[in-house]
Every structure is written in structure tokens, then in C-alpha cells.
Amino acid sequence: MSADHVTRRLLTAVAAAVLGGCAGLPMYQPAAGQPLATIKLSPNLASQAMPLSFCDGRRCYDLKSSHGELQVPTGERLMLFKVLVASGYQRMYSCSPDLTFVPYPGVVYYADFALRAEHCVLGLYRDAPASRVGILFEPTVRAVPHKHAG
Questions:
Q1: What domain count does the chain have?
Q2: Is 145 a member of any domain?
Q3: Closest by CA position to 33, among listed 105, 103, 104
Q4: What is the extent of the structural domain holding 33?
Q5: Helix residue ranges, H only, the chain
Q6: What pTM did the predictor assign?
């Protein structure tokens, strides 16, 4: 999937979220016996009904949390994204941070989302309970190239 194609799909999902109040994407349902990877969610993501969405080479889907975890297909690069629309202090705020990564069967990942200095940040790490801090940088994570107006 080309970067332009991924960007167009993401912008369509964001527009649907802003205009419709939800992404309006189909819910991901893995096929029986499909190899999956698990994404553990940070507490702020786990408290949301549909914390993340993803696009594969063909379609985009919403992911539903089950006890603070998500299941994603493996074997190809996925674009993972979060749509946030919020209001407060007499203004509307929206953002959609994203990244791509290649999930592997049986591997557990850890996703975190935060607002920092008025910027949305989505992070994805490899769960590593034996490491000093419990996570490691995920080597397959890449930024999604975006075209900027101007």
C-alpha cells in the first residue's frame, strides 16, 4: 500500500469521525485460526470502548477492547491510529496520531496515547516484562508520511 493511499484512507476515517461522531469503520473480526498479535492498552486507552483503529493493505477497521487488550492480524504492515475529538475551554480539539508496524504472531505489544503540549502522541512498544521498565522499543514502528498544506 502506497503512503498516499494510506494517507487518503486515514484522512477519510478522520473526516468521518469528526463529522459523524465516530469513525464509522467496520469492527475487526479475525477469521477462525488466523494468527494474531495482542496489543495491551495503557490505562487511558483501556478506558475507551474503541481505543484504536487500523488499516491493512485493503481496508480499515475499528478495534474493540476486551479487558484492556486488542487483537490484530499479523504478517503485513498495518497502520494503527487513534481519532480524538474533544472540547473544553471554549474550543474544539481534534487529532489523529498514527504509525505503522509489522505485528508478529504471538508477540504482545503495548500501546499508549497521550496529549503532550497540545500534540497527540501514539506510542507502540513491545511488551517485555523481564526488561528493566517492562517494555522495549518496537523495531518495526515507522511514522506515516503526511503531505502538509502550504
A1: 1
A2: no
A3: 105
A4: 3-137
A5: 3-20, 43-46
A6: 0.78
